[in-house]
């Protein structure tokens, strides 16, 4: 077998890492190399929050240590039985790449995951060693996100958290039945046990930092996870329920959703087509409703249709409002912040501006229009000093009136 050079390995392992969506770089501790000490930074322009159109962060060097794997998860392109070209970096090679790319201003940090080689412990040792080289040998102060392995010893995962800004453990699939069927080498209780261990270490480290100034930090950016959407029969209701459980039990910073993508030489148990990317987008919107808009999980589930999935033509907030029209219209001059946040088309910033403005004047429809992108979506659900929707809120075709118009894009449009 011909030995691969660094560029060839980078092409293989960067491409293999593209299926992992959980690479945001927010929430970490501030560090800087200002003053000539160390290299890299996580503050100011050190971490560039640049995102691709689908919401994925593109500011990190995102690669696998290796795409060799002893597991045989049906949905994974790097599974043991997959016929793909394999490659492997050493920890020193990854560290050298990270430093070289950072000095050239190509990246703002490192997102490192790996297939399982030899054993979970051996692989975890290699990941930790990469982070150790960067932090201790080169005093790298940029962002590091390590994908940890739930089957590895807890002490190795703990070492990862001491070097990394954020750690993550993928739950992979929304239901235990789906995980058992599609990832027979993985165990749901083992995954949640590892997440619980990370949560405990984060809480302990924060407590120690309050009492001892120089206590070590542990994953200051918290932990996150990822779920694959559309590889099994789980509905959006199942996914929302699982996400809520994870947020509540493990205090996750983020749950990421990744639409299943068909892979070469796919297993017969997988669907032949990928789910619409809009489904992934709607799940992110539902996640936002729970985290920032005060919606309970069961309320988001109420926005689903008969098959348990969120509608694709309208967003979850509008879907909920259309199902519970008796809650509307709300008076923007009198209603609480909680009710204003439930108005389709009103974001958290707009609601904050409404609450601040109405202390000084009575708001009219034009005032609300200045705070939003389009007042058309909002009008059926609000009352202002000069506007009342009358029968518009109960209009039989309100959904079709408010749903975004479907347009055929032109390939060569100017």
UniProtKB/TrEMBL annotation:
The keyword Zinc-finger does not apply. GO terms for molecular function: catalytic activity; iron-sulfur cluster binding; metal ion binding. The keyword S-adenosyl-L-methionine applies. InterPro entries: Aldolase_TIM (IPR013785), DNA_rSAM_put (IPR023874), Endo/Exo/Phosphatase_dom_1 (IPR051675), rSAM (IPR007197), rSAM_sf (IPR058240), RuvA_2-like (IPR010994). It comes from the Bacteria. Signal peptide: none annotated. Its cofactor is [4Fe-4S] cluster. Keywords: Iron, Iron-sulfur, Metal-binding, S-adenosyl-L-methionine. This is Biotin synthase. It comes from Aurantiacibacter atlanticus. The lineage of its organism: Bacteria, Pseudomonadati, Pseudomonadota, Alphaproteobacteria, Sphingomonadales.
